[in-house]
Amino acid sequence: MKPVTVLLLTMALAPVVVVSAQDQPGIEQIAAKWRCKFCPFDEQLGLHGEVEGGLGYVSDDSFKRGEYNGLHEEGVYLIGNADLSYLGEDAQYWDLIVEDLGLDSRYIYTETGEQGKYSLHLEYDEIPHFIYDTSETPFRGIGGNVLTLPPSWVPAPSTSGFTELANTLQPVDIKTQRKKLGVGGSMIAGKGWELTSSYTHERQDGLKTTGAAIGANFATSTATILPLPVDYTTHQLDVASQYSVADYQIKFGYYGSFFENSNRFLTWQNPFANPTDPVGSGSLSQPPDNQFHQLYFNGGYEISEQTRATAHVAIGRMLQDEDLLPYTVNPALQPPSLTGPLFPLPRDSADARIDTYTMDLGLLSNIDDKLRLSGKLRYQEQDNRTPREAYDYVIGDTAVVQSADAESNLPYGFKTNTVELAGTYRLAKRARLLAGIDYQTYARTFQEVEETDEHTLWSKITFRPGDTLDVTVKLTHSDRDGDAYQPVLQINPPQNLLLRKFNLADRQRNEVNVSASFGMGEMTSVGLSADYAEDDYSDSEIGLRESDDVAYILDLTLALTEDISAYGFYTREEMNSELAGASAFSPPDTATQSDWSESSRDEIDTIGVGFTWWNVIEGKLDIGGDYTYSSSTGSVDVDPGTAFPDVTARIATLELDIDYHVEEHTTTRLSVTYEEFDARDWSTDGVDVDTIPQVLSLGQSTPSYADYVVGLSVRHRF
Questions:
Q1: Reduced to 3 states, what is the DSSP secondary structure of residue 27?
Q2: Residue of 128, 264, 330, 480 with fewest CB within 10 Å of its CB?
Q3: What pLDDT score was predicted for residue 3?
């Protein structure tokens, strides 16, 4: 099932290797046709761009500070950036982009070719995710798929009895790193024909976290938070051929994705039980290897000067045929009626298969100089062809379920049909009216609502009452209705008959969006915007009942002098929701009324100011600075009951850049960034590895930091 990497790479490069463009016009004809009469075309020949090199320093270690940017470790790092382009007289060209060369978030892209004939590109990208650097665990074998406890470990029914815990804890960093290498190219294969291809190889490794439970019920179950190994490889291939002439364009292509996981499972020793106990170990499956293949077609046709039609059609197939894992890793657990070490599986593999179908048809027509109409038809389907089987099972590697209570897998699938109609009418020279209607049907299998219909009406007006004021107002209303809500009989235990899942429930949604920008002369501009959205689930007795989202934005730009400009902005967002719940379990033939409710509220405020001062020293010194501050608060109230403590986060960032121009093309830059972050989260604050009696955790703490980053670099422009 693994793809042959060499073959894929050969396919990706093939269009470039077989370049033949004898029928194409020379660069002289192309340049003559597209030459800008007012641009210094010849001055673009040769090498031009910018390179930057230097050193930076991070004052403290903090995974949160460098969560995605790589600035997570105290010490010196290399500053390396470049943006270079070369164009020769024979139309040969070369581009190079380098970003953050000295960090774990580095990016490199290079492309070469001959204009009008072929191109070849190479890309390398790293994406870090630093999650926790405060975790501890007694487990050994971290990074592999078998976790064991040290020989001195003393099991107990509660974490308070783990007498060797303090002596066996060791730090573990929870982080992942993605590394992607891509190659591709294109060529002109004949008049109007172009071939394109690309191949990417992405590797992700490191550690995430997962919860693992052992036990048959809430009263006796125990859980462990484990470091989950990540060792994923993904291959992606896209090969296409397209043809373009004056009236129409067509494109045929193939896209393939191949996912490989080096770890099929994670097995861990149960810290609450002796190794010789029947539940001495547990096991979890990991994402299986899988494939996706798709053939697609894109087309566009100019019916007339005013009307254009477009089409997109794609068929695909998802496949997964990994061997199924046993029901449990504890051989002492088996049905009394069976003999042998383990349960017999009904099949060796799920032989999972999902067929996908997509069709988009569009039509756009400019009726006259005032009216434009558009329409879209969209069809999507996921046809799940995975075979159904009845599976025996073991709950939490502990309780044997008899064959009479076997469960069958549910091959979920869906179909959607969408119609979108829209129009734009110019009311006056400075006013336009836009309006549209969308209609969608959504059919599902093995879910509580078989089909939903949603209608959406929207209108938008933009007008400019004066030379300095622009205003936009948009109103949207949508109404979703579904078939009768019927709990899925195959799901055990059954749900409350009054429960409504928010993505399936009847819902009314209203949205208002208003924005305005005002120019106060040539020196100042002000922008205002407000967004409001409300969802109403009035027919849901248990579940989400209502939610709303409000956002305000104010921004100001000032040109104080010819050399000094400043800006400021403020944003606020509020998100509220109300839901109803029932604490008692509902038998399949009854409905338990709601006896508690929950309301949540999130508030986020952000403010920022900044300035740029050119020519502090004429032709030599420029200074720029920015300050941003953001604060968020999340609150949850339960009735009857007490409110949970608020979850808060605060971050403030101050940046200062000083550029000194050594000469016309060379500049030195000193950059200083100071950042503070502080958060309060009751779910992790003060929660050590053994705080919860039935849960052995990793003891992560809520991150906070205050550090600075200094950089000194030299930039040279060609």
A1: helix
A2: 264
A3: 42
Beta pairing partners, 497: none
Which residues is 128 bridged to in the sheet? 177
Angstrom distances, CA of residue 507 to CA of 333, 380, 444, 516, 537: 47, 22, 17, 30, 5
459 to 424, 511, 528: CA distances (angstroms) = 10, 11, 20
Q: Take residue 675 and report the two structure tokens written for it.
A: 């950042």
Q: What is the largest CA-CA distance in the chain?
A: 92
Cα of 253 vs its chain's centroid, Å? 25
37 in any annotated domain: no
Phi, psi of 694 (to 5 degrees): -100, 10
User: What number of other Cβ atoms are within 10 A of residue 258's Cβ?
Assistant: 22
DSSP state of 587: P
Provide the CB-side half-sphere exposure for 710 (13 A, CA): 5
Q: Cα–Cα distance between 329 and 278 in angstroms, integer? A: 10
> Do residues 717 and 685 make contact, with C-beta atoms less than 8 angstroms apart?
no
User: Residue 657's closest CA among 711, 716, 715?
Assistant: 711
Give the span between the Cα atoms of 20 and 193, in whole angstroms: 11
Question: Is residue 517 within 8 Å of 466, Cβ to Cβ?
Answer: no
The answer to whether position 146 is within a domain reads yes
Q: Which residue has the tokens 């383990």?
A: 342
Counted domains in the chain:
1
Residue 663 lies in a domain: yes
Q: Which residue would you say has higher pLDDT here, 38 or 362?
A: 362
Coil/strand/helix, residue 24:
coil
594 with 541: CB under 8 angstroms?
A: yes
pLDDT digits (tens, 9 = 90+) for 593-623: 888 999 999 999 999 999 999 999 999 999 9
Q: How far is CA 261 from the centre of its chain?
A: 20
Give the structural domain span for 206: 45-234+656-718
Residue 709 phi, psi dihedral angles, 5° rounding? -125, 130
Q: Which amino acid is at 539?
A: D
Cβ neighbors of 316 (< 8 A, separation 6 or more) are 255, 292, 293, 294, 295, 355, 356, 357, 358
> In three state form, how does the secondary structure of 361-427 look?
EEEEEECCCCEEEEEEEEEEEEEECCCCCEECCEECCCEECCHHHCEECCCCCEEEEEEEEEEEEEE
Cα distances (angstroms) measured from residue 532 to each of 26, 142, 504, 537, 575: 56, 47, 23, 17, 10
Q: What pLDDT shows up at residue 36?
A: 46
Residue 228, Cβ density class (10 Å: 0-12 exposed, 13-18 middle, ≥19 buried) = buried
Rounded to 5°, the CA angle 446-577-640 comes to 100
Q: Does 81 reside within a domain?
A: yes
Per-residue pLDDT of 197-244, as tens digits, reads 999 999 999 999 999 999 887 778 999 999 999 999 999 999 999 999
Is the distance from CB of 701 to CB of 648 less than 8 angstroms? no
Q: What local confidence, expressed as pLDDT, does residue 226 receive?
A: 97
